[in-house]
Amino acid sequence: MGDGAILRTARIARGAGYIFLRGVLQIGLTLVFFLFLARCFPAYTTGMGEFAIVGFIYTLAQIVGNLGMNWGAVRYIAYYQGKGEEEMAYAAMISSLKVVLVCSSVLSAISFAICYHIGLTPLLILLSIGVFSAPLWFFMVSIVQGLRKFGWFSGLLSINEVLRKVPAIVLLIWGYGLEGILLSWVVADFATIGLSFIPISRGFRTKEGGSLPAKELFSFSMPILGANLIEYASAWADRIALLFLFVGGNPLIALGIYTVAATANQLVIAMITRSFFMAMFPQFSETYGAKPEELSQVFALSSRYINYVSFPCAIGAALLAEPVILILGPTYVDAVSPFMLLATCIILSGPWYAVASAFLALGKSGEYLKMMATGVISDIVVCALLIPYLGICGAAIGRNVLFVTSLCWGAIRLRKYIEVKFDKESVVKGGVGATILGGVVYAVSVFFVHKLLVLLLSVLLGSLAYLASIVAQRGVHSRDVEFIEGILPPRMNWLVRLLEKVAK
Fold first, then answer.
1. Which long-range contacts (CB under 8 A, 24 or more apart) does 246-252 make?
2. Does pTM top 0.85 for this prediction?
């Protein structure tokens, strides 16, 4: 394994670490936000379902308004900077920005026209403004991601998260409902757009002379648009199926309960494995531009560390489902079972994101599109078969099937382009360690009753037990020490020296 591959993987982990900290903040703020939201919109009302629909429209506009150009910017900026062609990287940014500005402006104009026909209300006006701001802020932070300025990238996402949630909570308390939430989102969007100019202005050494053909940009980005729409549909396929196939009660209420479980699961994935994805995609692209032969090595190392992180998180999330969900109140007890089922997605999402990052770095966005389509089709079929009988648990099972089928298909197709090596040792030893962690978490839940105390002790004691089991299984190698040394600051060299004593 070359030193370059280890250093590039270390950059991925360092970037994922920054994004992980943002994920911790996101989970904390989202938990507090949902506490207030659940009390304003109890499970026996349609308020949570209406909130889910507003969120669906807002995020759909974000995807369509970008036309896949956000991922195009990430890929081409990192790729051309890896090749040393700075002027081409800047040209890619400018060309894609023009497309996003035009598209988001057109979408906003259409939205205002429709709302004017229906009858303008504060909610619809804010939604129309958000249709413009949502794609633009997401594109601007994607440029920062492509520049691999992960500290800034994480900081901008954190600022956006704070401005979206904190004012929204205050406005909910004051009784402004969905209008207050949307106002917070729009303000956060424009603030993030303004701040993103700081790292972008410092990220390009050359700003003249390049020209990226529109055909090349669109040939990569349009399949990404399709894939993003399918990915978003995958997040909503199970929920939409609930609306039409749920029997035995109000489908909007069932949607609201399932939304709590699905959101909790998505937050864990966003904090853990998607943090790696946000760092892997631009770093894989830079690697492919600088040293294509190292891409398969970086892929294998990345899968190793993702497995070591995702296994304990999945087991912990499943066993702590009840105390976590019931923090929102006893009316959401029905969300516990689907959340436990969805925990499997945490393990599957790690290698899934590694495969997706490799496809995108290689410029094979069409393969990524097919990978997403395979998963969504299987999800829809399973949901159609199971929801009438299992309700929201059937929707959760469909979500798991999505990850399994798309991951298998994607891994098989990726072998056409690079040597695909998933780290098997981390699967075995991570699985054993996660099982030991599960035993510790279960013991804590038996001996203690207070939910918050159970959560804190489970995280602390479970983490210590997991780390001890990995060391006992001799799951730390010399290359892992090099990797960790590349992540940690110099003042923590004592930890590196300690790891050297237990490494193979």
1. 246/387, 246/388, 246/391, 246/392, 247/388, 248/391, 250/46, 252/46, 252/49, 252/50
2. no
